[in-house]
C-alpha cells in the first residue's frame, strides 16, 4: 500500500506478467553477493581457547608480515559448537578464502570447521597443559579426518607454517 505523495517502492508489473517475475532466483543472488568486495579478511585464524593464543599469534604475525589480512577468533568446537558452525557456514560468503584452526587435546575444531565449509582448512595441532605424548593427541585428531572431508595439517605448535601454507594457497 502506498500513501499519497510517497514514491512506490516496486513498480507494478506489466500487464499480464506475474508480480514476482522480477525477483532473481536465490542462488543467483548468493553468487552475486560473493562477488561483492566486502573488505573482509582473506584468512581466518581460529583457536579453541584463549590459552592457545601465544602459539597461534605466530600465524597472525606471518600473515601480517606478508600483507595478508586476517581476523582472529577464539571458539571451541566442544564448548561452543553452534558458534563454530555458524562461523564456518558464513565464512565463504563473507569473503574469507582460507581458514587456519588451532586446538589442543581432542582437537576437533579444524575438522568441525571443514565439515561446515568448502574453504580450505589448515589445522594446527597444539600442545597444552594436559597434552599427552607432546601433542600427539591433537596431531592425530586433526590429521585423521575421514575421506571426503580433508584438513591440511602442519606440525605441532607450528602456526607459522599454517600461515605460509595459507599464503601459498592464496598464491601471494
Ligand atoms: N579445546 C578447547 N575446546 C576443545 C578443545 N579441544 C582445547 C583448546 C586448548 C585446550 O583444549 O584448544 O588447547 C585447553 O583449553 P583450556 O581453555 O582449558 O586452556
Describe the structure.
It contains 6 helices and 5 strands; from the N terminus they run αβαβαβαβαβα. It is α/β, with parallel strands linked by helices and 172 residues long. It has a 5-stranded parallel beta sheet with strand order 2-1-3-4-5, sandwiched between helices. α2 runs parallel beside α6 and α3 (81-91) crosses α4 (109-116). The longest helix has 13 residues, at 53-65. 33% of the residues are buried. Residues 47-49, 51-52, 76-79, 103-107, 126, 128 line the site of 5-aminoimidazole ribonucleotide.
Helical content stands at 25-40%
Question: Radius of gyration, Cα only, in angstroms?
Answer: 21 Å
Biggest sheet: strand arrangement: 2-1-3-4-5
Shape: globular
Global mean pLDDT? 88
SS content category: alpha/beta
What binds here, in terms of ligands, is:
5-aminoimidazole ribonucleotide
Query: How many β-strand stretches?
Result: 5
Question: First CA to last CA: what distance?
Answer: 53 Å
Order of helices and strands: HEHEHEHEHEH
* Contiguous runs where pLDDT drops below 50 for at least 5 residues: 1-5
| Main beta-sheet strand count, sense and barrel state | 5 strands, parallel
Please, how many helices?
Answer: 6
Strand content: 5-15%
Oligomer: single chain
